[in-house]
């Protein structure tokens, strides 16, 4: 006999656990099913998904540790602080990261109890349609159990994309999971892919002393970014020591006891070879749909492996929704969370909403890169007339005081209405500063609106104001 729920969520990542919590808050009987153990010492399934266990959270912990080490080594002297003999204990750094992850997963368990969400540890698949809903089979450590639900949310996330002919063992050749737990700093590190994950993980180990070479197939660096931002960041990364190779074609990759050898053709068509101790393969992610048995309820994946949904994340089968990396759109944790809340509220009869035009993007390197809305190249392609305002952090007193004046803020606004269409930031606090831009765009603010708001002095947020004023050549401090 199966246990009956109003809502069953498959997957306990950001989209799944947030959807489950919101549905619980709205008075529904909810279960959330998760089978992935990640690196749990007991082999128990862990809540939080890729983001919490082997993605966003652990990578940010390592980025913070490595940045502290680099500051002590190279920037403390600027403040009059003399440090000699600084060393990095890699094992302790990794343990700190693991402890943070364990604390966060425990936090989700507490939230589930608080909101009366039942956590089921196992792998779920659809069995078929039943009266009043759907039946699922859950494979647990104790065997199989059946659950039924009036409505289902698929939130199974994504996994690292691997390249044909390159065997990822997460020891010598690694994806994001292996790159988060190196036992020592590699002398030479190769990274295939100059995307967000590749740049972040490459930055971690470069700061700790690795000689890092990045191989990217695309001819243009950070093609998704505003062109001005991409050009500036390429200069900064190169100055930091990341060796960037764009427009390459990867050939044979050989792993041995000594390390990895990567044959590739450079942008000029010349044969090259990269020998390194470790290799990170970071070439995007693919949806997790294996084993769901979607056919049992009349669903299937599209040519990209995604589950097709409408504007409110409902699939072609009424009562089954999908959110996050398993559907169209940006593979971002906060996008999945917004979709999870929207779906739960729709299930409760409310007007759930997710504005895809105001979802921010962030690269957590040093400095960070953050943006929301349109880039200049997109506006040009759309034929939309716009005006741009840009202001540097080097003219900001707080940035100078913090010893971190790299980067700028760029505001793009409609040439006629002055509505803010996009904001792009390079700064070590860009991930926080972008929130003001998201809020402004959500409420259809103009650049003048931002320019007329009083910003605290001295603060980094003043640069956002100055960039907005610069749209009409009204900047006051530059």
UniProtKB/TrEMBL annotation:
Keywords carried by this UniProt record: Cytoplasm, Disulfide bond, FAD, Flavoprotein, NAD, Nucleotide-binding, Oxidoreductase, Redox-active center
UniProt catalytic activity: N(6)-[(R)-dihydrolipoyl]-L-lysyl-[protein] + NAD(+) = N(6)-[(R)-lipoyl]-L-lysyl-[protein] + NADH + H(+)
The protein, known as: Dihydrolipoyl dehydrogenase
Binding site for NAD(+): 193-200, 216, 284
Catalytic site positions: 457
Superkingdom classification of source: Bacteria
Documented EC number(s): 1.8.1.4
Record-annotated disulphide pairs: 51-56
Cofactor info, note text: Binds 1 FAD per subunit.
Domain Pyridine nucleotide-disulphide oxidoreductase dimerisation: 359-468
Record carries keyword Hydrolase: no
Gene (UniProt): lpdA_2
PROSITE patterns noted in UniProt: PYRIDINE_REDOX_1 (PS00076)
Cofactor: FAD
Source organism of the structure: Limnobacter thiooxidans
InterPro entries cross-referenced by the UniProt entry: Class-I_Pyr_Nuc-Dis_Oxidored (IPR050151), FAD/NAD-bd_sf (IPR036188), FAD/NAD-binding_dom (IPR023753), FAD/NAD-linked_Rdtase_dimer_sf (IPR016156), Lipoamide_DH (IPR006258), Pyr_nuc-diS_OxRdtase (IPR001100), Pyr_nucl-diS_OxRdtase_dimer (IPR004099), Pyr_OxRdtase_I_AS (IPR012999)
GO molecular function: dihydrolipoyl dehydrogenase (NADH) activity; flavin adenine dinucleotide binding
SUPFAM superfamilies attached to this UniProt entry: FAD/NAD(P)-binding domain, FAD/NAD-linked reductases, dimerisation (C-terminal) domain
GO biological process per UniProt: 2-oxoglutarate metabolic process
Occurrences of domain FAD/NAD(P)-binding (ranges): 5-340
Location(s), subcellular: Cytoplasm
Binding site for FAD: 60, 156-158, 325, 331-334
GO cellular component terms, semicolon-separated: cytoplasm
The family this protein is said to belong to: Belongs to the class-I pyridine nucleotide-disulfide oxidoreductase family.
Miscellaneous comment in the UniProt entry for this protein: The active site is a redox-active disulfide bond.
